[in-house]
Amino acid sequence: MTFTHTLADPRVETTLSRMFANAERDDATEARTRAEHPRAAEPKTPQELADAAAEIYMPISAAGGQLLYSLVRAVRPATVVEFGMSFGISTLHLAAAVRDNGAGRVITTELSKAKVAAARRTFAEAGLDDVITVLEGDALQTLGNLDAPADLVLLDGWKDLCLPVLRLLEPQLAPGTLVVADDVNLGSLLPYLEYVRTPANGYQSVTFPVEDGMEISCRL
Has residue 156 been placed in a domain? Predict the structure, then answer.
């Protein structure tokens, strides 16, 4: 069976459709989780937050995924780095573009063990596991030992950690590297936005109006 690009591969298309449908139940899933554990302490650490959200997809939008696919196809990065995989919806878009470019890889990070296990199964089912490396654990540790520069970066983990992750990666960001952050409407992303929108910090940054907004910053 032929298809024009990997996002149209029936394995990928079916997988993404199922995942987006599951993600539409995020609010109900969160409400059920709170009802089942009414006395649970409010999660505070990244690990506690990850454990509390182990069943919640928190995905990028379909349009956001298409934008990421197009950016990777255009830039043709050798190494794509993603902070915050969740169940892997964004990762599949990145990996599909890498596959269609004919070269490259996606290195993604996730703190939730349950999500890592589920995503690995999903990537194999979609036929894209060979271009995806999943780093399980704290991204501030796992991303500190990359064996190559990041040529395109997606920041979609906990928003208050986006700036620390960017600063960690900065020594390896060549001029022209694109850094994309999702959900510009969230207040917890404000320190990050202030940083990349300040010219003295070495970025040209623009907000792309897709769903909750993506900040696309070019390393100067």
Answer: yes
